[in-house]
Recover the amino acids of this structure.
């Protein structure tokens, strides 16, 4: 068995070990996988199947679709699979997929903190939008998808040659940085990645903080303090970028995670409430209904009916 097949087998075995629960536990799964992995989607489908249940990964995750059909779910949003589309899943954001056997492309995931300090240049730090929660997908021209595919093929070659230690291998972090820079350029050349493409430094930092702390902290004061800003100043920046208040953006993050778990997992509503950091399930129900107009039970039932169709 070559190195690529061995790593893929390891990934499959550890994923299947933890996929039996209602939702893949992010920290258990994180400890069980390598800090960097990359495979062709057609190879993965053959190993772990075409349907993957919801996951809450703590790695940054990218899927480049070159052909095929199916659906990709990021947070509470469901997107059809289209040729030459790049899906971008930031760390700590739940996602799932249902792909047809004809799927073709690549997926790559990595832990940001596993990279050496030199791996991410000032250019990348100032153009961080491709790793923010606000991004979901990027439609590509065929030539752009070809460029990204070439970078990913180089990374696959490194893995095939047994070079998977990103702390020691200089090619892997350099090629990932090239991949991220290309995404940024492609997003600027087209319609971009939505709100993420033009983030100010503080707004990028704000979205990153939400991804890390939304379960424990939901007050505007916490995020403003972490950014050494007055809450009113942060609210002004966020509203200029998103057209919503800081509190509304925080609540939206919580609501997206709520929808994802309600529609895709077998957890009871009270279990979901505790998992999302609510001490009182009744308050979770009040919060969810205020945000969506329906109760968690109604939303969960609607999600169950959709899965049965």
């Amino acid at each position: 068995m070559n190195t690529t097949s061995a790593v893929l087998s390891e990934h499959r075995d550890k994923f299947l070990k933890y996929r039996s629960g209602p939702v893949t536990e992010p920290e258990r799964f994180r400890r069980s996988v390598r800090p960097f992995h990359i495979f062709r989607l057609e190879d993965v489908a053959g190993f772990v199947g075409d349907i993957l249940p919801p996951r809450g990964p703590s790695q940054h995750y990218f899927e480049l679709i070159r052909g095929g059909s199916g659906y990709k779910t990021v947070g509470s949003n469901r997107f059809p699979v289209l040729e030459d589309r790049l899906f971008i899943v930031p760390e700590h954001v739940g996602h799932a997929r249902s792909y047809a056997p004809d799927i073709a492309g690549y997926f790559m995931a990595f832990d940001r903190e596993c990279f050496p300090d030199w791996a991410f240049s000032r250019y990348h730090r100032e153009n961080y939008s491709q790793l923010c929660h606000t991004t979901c997908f990027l439609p590509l021209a065929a030539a752009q998808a070809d460029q990204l595919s070439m970078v990913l093929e180089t990374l696959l070659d490194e893995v095939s040659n047994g070079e998977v230690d990103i702390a020691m291998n200089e090619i892997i972090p350099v090629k990932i940085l090239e991949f991220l820079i290309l995404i940024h350029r492609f997003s600027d050349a087209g319609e971009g990645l939505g709100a993420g493409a033009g983030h100010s430094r503080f707004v990028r930092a704000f979205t990153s903080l939400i991804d890390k702390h939304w379960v424990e902290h939901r007050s505007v004061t916490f995020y403003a303090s972490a950014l050494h800003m007055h809450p009113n100043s942060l609210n002004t920046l966020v509203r200029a970028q998103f057209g919503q208040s800081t509190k509304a953006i925080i609540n939206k993050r919580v609501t997206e995670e709520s929808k994802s778990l309600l529609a895709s997992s077998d957890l009871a509503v009270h279990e979901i409430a505790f998992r999302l950091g609510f001490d009182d399930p009744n308050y979770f129900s009040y919060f969810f209904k205020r945000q969506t107009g329906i109760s968690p039970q109604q939303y969960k039932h609607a999600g169950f009916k959709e899965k049965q169709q």
